[in-house]
Every structure is written in C-alpha cells, then in structure tokens.
Amino acid sequence: MHELSIADSIIKTATAEATKRRATEISAVGLRIGQLTDIVEDSLRFGLEVLSKGTMMEKAEIEIESIPPIGYCETCARNIEIRKFFFVCPECNGRQIKLISGNELDIAYIELETDDKVSTEEKQNTTDSTDA
Amino acid sequence: MPERIEIEKKVLSENDRTAATIRANLKKRGIASINLVSSPGSGKTSLLERSLTTLNKELSIAVIAGDVQTDNDARRLEAAGGTIVRPIVTGGACHLDARMVAKSLESIDLDPVKLLVIENVGNLVCPSSYDLGEDMKVVLISTTEGDDKPLKYPAMFRKASVMVVNKIDLLGSSDFMLSRVKENALNINGALKIFELSCRSGEGLNTWYSWLRELAGTRPQTKSTKPILI
Fold first, then answer.
1. Does A59 fall in a domain?
2. In chain B, what residues touch A97 (CB-CB under 8 Å)?
C-alpha cells in the first residue's frame, strides 16, 4: 500500500525539477525500481494516475525499469544473480552476500515541454543559476 | 520537442535526508535506537511491555509507538512502566516515515534517554522502504505465523539486523518449525542475529534484556549488531 506515498514523492520531486527548469509540462518520467523494494508496478501506476491529476505530470508517460537483485559473494569475490531473493552463493553456498543492485527507487529522467516564449538562452541561464 | 533530462534522484531522498539528521542527532547524544517491525499480532507491544517493566528502573527508554488507528499500544506501554511514550497515529498510512519520527522526537526530552525504540506499524512490506534514522531494524516473527515469512517478505528480513522469534511457548501447537524459520531467514540475510523467546512464559527474555542493556550502554555503529566493549 505504500505505492501511494511513493507516487506522491515521485510527483513532488519531478514537478519541483520541472518548475526549476521552467517547464510547462512533464511528458515522460523514467523510473528505476529494484525488485527488492516490494513496489507493485500496477499499484504505483494507479497511484501516479490518481495523484498527478491537475499537476504538470498529468499527461506524463511512465516508463519503469525493473532492476533484478544482484549480489556480490565476499567468499568467491564475484557477482551472483539473486534467485528468489536467496542471498546464498550458488558456487560456495556462502551467505556473506553484499547487495549490489535491486534496492533502487530512483527517478532516472524526466522529459519536459517548455513554453516556446522562453528562449533557449534564458533556459540556459536558469539552469546555470540553479546549478550554482 | 520535449527535452529529456537525466535527473537521477532518489524518490525518497527527502525522507532519507530527515533520517540522516535524526541519526546524527541520536549519535551525538549517545542514544541507541531500534526500529521494531513485524506483522500485526506478532507481539511487538508485548515485547516492549516486558522490556519496559524490567529495564525501566535501570535504563531510560523512550518509545515512539506507531499505529494506524488508536493510541492503545502507547497506553499499554505506559501502564507497563514506560515513562517516555509517544503515540503516532498515522490515520491510515501503513508505515512510519522519518518526518513523523522527527516531529515526535521534538516532544521528548532526550537528555536522560539511552535507548529509543520506534514501534512501527504492523506491516512487513511498506516499513522496509523508509529509513527512520535508527541504528538497526529488529524484525519480530511469532510461532503462530508461517515459518516461510522471511521468504514472503525478503526485503524486510534483508534490511533487518536482528530477528526475534516470539511465542516459543506455543511451539508444537502448529506446523511452525524453529529450524525452518531460521534457515529461511538466514538464506535471505546470513548476518541476522536471532533471539528466541516468549513474552508470555518469559523464556529467553533475559538474553534479550542483556542485549538491550549492552546496546544502550554503548554507541553502536550503524548497521552493526556487535556491541562495542568499553
């Protein structure tokens, strides 16, 4: 059920970034979600659809990249695929496994529509000043 | 043409920032902290009741008790001898977040506190995503549940440092096998420290109390369950 809170955080973060860049609309949002986060994609999409009404993200296309868990076996010193969330090395049966990926909950990118009236030069200045 | 911007932002960065502030504040004051998580009914409140009754005279423990509705748990903990108990009623939310904890901490005089216990909302899914600024997560499971729960909720068991198996007085009354739950949990997280106890019979509680004393008497490093000997 925390997909709703996650959706809310995504919208807040994405719209803040878009506002900073003087965009008028967010046309797409790319998310990277690790499989270990227990986020249900359908619930998240539903949450985003409901909560984005009336925001710059209302029409945004949502792309979700699901990241499988990868571990690092400290005994064998190599990366292993984590199957069924078993953090056990298939080679040495070791349980000293460090998580390399699978816990992501990131906004990778946003696609922005900007008002034509705002010149490229002006946008450049805005970006520069916010980065500084 | 739409412009694509790679922003690479963590969705929960705001929560993580607040959690980092809480963690730094607690560390500065030498307060150890645990985030207690479980399914509803595993015995989080019972374990805290027993712990408060036994340890309250020697150790100042602050408890933040989260619940979806009612402050019943907080009242139970006060009745058990808890002197610093703050309820958080989430009003529907299935987890606590760092902002709720930070707000609750503002109402606590932290000077005498040695140990902070955050009793999360009964739920093994959502609380795993939210860092509350604690030193470690302690996951509780009871023998009246399935011994495959670690496999069903791997994220929580992976992120926890400690697993407590409660209601061991009822072993044998169901198909729950202690060896199986331990095997399942260790396959998810080989570094888990495990306690077996019964809040009803009292069995195993002394080991748990000793661990809490050690935890509160030292300044544990984040994510480490090993007490530091002074």
1. yes
2. 190
